[in-house]
Design brief:
Elements: H1 7-15, H2 28-40, H3 45-52, H4 57-68, H5 78-83
Helix pairs in contact: 2-4
Length: 94
């Protein structure tokens, strides 16, 4: 059974510039904040996954951020970046 996160943990996360534990809508800025915190050692991968109830999403965000920067964290671009530039089909010009 999961134990609820303490108010002090939530306050600490917010002070560190991380999104609140109740986050459900992951915009680029929030994803980047968690990825940077994990990469810099402010928070462990396992801890971030537990706090934010993530599984493989965090590792895919980290990989996308390392390869493509903030643009890689945009959900509209995920498929494009995963396919790679060489196989991308150009859209017809209007």
């Amino acid at each position: 059974m999961k134990t609820p996160l303490s108010d002090s943990l939530a306050e600490t996360l917010l002070r560190e510039g991380l999104p609140p534990p109740s986050t459900r809508r992951w915009v680029v800025r929030r994803k980047a904040a968690v990825v940077v915190a994990v990469s810099s050692g402010k928070i462990a991968v396992e801890e971030a996954c537990q706090i934010y109830q993530l599984t493989e999403e965090l590792l895919s965000w980290k990989h996308a951020f390392e390869r493509h920067g903030l643009a890689g964290l945009r959900t509209t671009r995920i498929q494009q970046y995963r396919r790679g530039r060489s196989r991308r089909i150009p859209l017809p010009r209007r």
